[in-house]
Amino acid sequence: MKFGTFVAALVVAVVAPSVTSFAGPDCRASRELLDLGHPLTVAREAVAKDHELRIVAMGSSSTQGYGTTSPQFAYPAQLKLHLEKAMPGVSVHVINKGIGGQDAEEMTERMKSDVQPAHAQLVIWQVGTNSAIRHTPLDLFSRKLRAGIDIGRSLGAEFILMNLQYVPAVVALPDEQDYAHVMAQVAKEKGAGLFNRLSIMKAWYNDGMPYSQFVYNDGLHLNDFGQKCIGKLLSQAILRTVKPSQLTGDPKAGN
Amino acid sequence: MPWRSVALSVPLSGRDLRLDFFRGLALWFIFLDHIPQNALSWVTVRNYGFSDATEIFVFISGYTAVIAYSRMMTREGWLRAASRIYRRVWQLYVAHILLFVFFTAQIAYFSFARNTTELIEEMQLMGLGTNPYRAIVEAVLLKFRPANLDVLPLYIVLLAVFPVVLPVLLRRPLAVLAASLGLYGAALHFGWNLPGYPEDKVWFFNPMAWQAIFYTGAVLAVLAPKLTWFDRWRWPLAVLAVLYLLLAGLVALSWHDTALSELIPDWLSRQIYPIDKTNLDILRFVHFVALAWLVRLAVPPDAAFLKWRFLTPIRRCGEHSLQIFCLGTFLSLTAEIVVAYFDDSIGSQVAVSVAGIAIMSLVAYGAAWFKGKPARREP
Fold it and tell me: In this complex, is the C-beta atom of B252 within 8 Å of any C-beta atom belonging to chain A?
């Protein structure tokens, strides 16, 4: 009797406040924010001719998936899921090369050994956050980015740079926009795509989505929702340029 | 043996119900928190500050390790105590490996039964798919630990080192505390951690950082009778603790409300974030200590509510912590699968949460009945 009342009270007390948040936030981004600014010709050709797309996800902990409850929620796995769904008959490989704590310099060092055996047409390079947190000088950061892109290019891969995440630990920095700016500049000069994660996530926040919805409680990494959503939006951005027109709307085409 | 006189100061009389109660509560919290996006996990501590149930569990493990083995050492010698500790380490290891097998088998079962590609994918991604034989070797070495199977390996490592520390702990507890905090600082500063699998992974709970909370518990158990010494500052410390918890609570609540997060100034955020769980961020550590201090003041060992009948299931779970921890981890995966692949709604979240806790409690009662008396406390 007593116990029953207690449980009932508990359930009401707990469920009532969370019902509102359960309605579920939208995973969204405006069209302009999903513009990579690059035609991804190599990837498009691989999809159209060979029905194949080989992607290396180069990055640090938010590529590795730290902060998610399962590695399948990390953005590279989600990217693969969405690309496969959108392009039946195309074999999509996403190789996760995320190593926690690394910044541009360390990733440039392993760019060759990670990209070469994968025969990747596309490298998604998630970078910038650790450099900003470690206060890597901007010119060094810029140099390493260029060097890394050159290495990947020489192996036949195109690049999409994924910039910083909009989370408390990054927002509190005085100069996170400077790092994002350098990445945009390098992408433009080197002819790489740019996935503007910082602005996309900032738009979530400005739309009233609380951090708890998309950030792990360490204030730095993305949680399940954040990672899944980034994976989904990135796939949309890539599909816009890569998906051959004959595949659009017909799930059987391309087989 | 010289440590005898010291060890006698360790409380011998009666079972401290608080240990069972809060350990049981931590086990319930861990279960609820392990179900992704669980509405019921709103009740758990992690939403109201920096630390969570893991700190409670590891702290009490250190505390009970002293209670369980210090007497044995003073009466029957170090060798006997050390062998008993290693018997316990072996039990933990067996439990972990069994849990690993059941955990992965459960994923495999649902993948086959429902032909769910996501689940098969999950096994691949965990590291089982590419090279299952290698994964088994790495699991035996505790390097491969799929999601949520991180706590027992930490505990195994901590307890495996414990026999070496125990004699010193009983004679010079403060020296042990200093060494423990020193190792914690060094691990943070030099970035030490143990290697994991797949390659480039490290332990989610860095043992060299998390040992700090284990030995804080152990040292406090040794010094328990002398803790009254702190009571001269009882109220100033309580005020500091409350202020810190309020600040932590405000920060934690700000994650749920954008208007509130605007109130946290950047200079403060720069000091706070990131709040690293892997390396037991100092903010988490202090948060737990503040919480423990207030609990010590608010909940004396003879607090009436500890004996309330409708709270006995919590204590029962705490008494059989190893079994209940393993069961809870297994059930949280079941709950996750039910919610994700059968019915994704608040109703099903509440249902699986309540059902899981009911099963955990039932099994704990069963274990108590089987033993015929309250369990001997093992850490």
Answer: yes
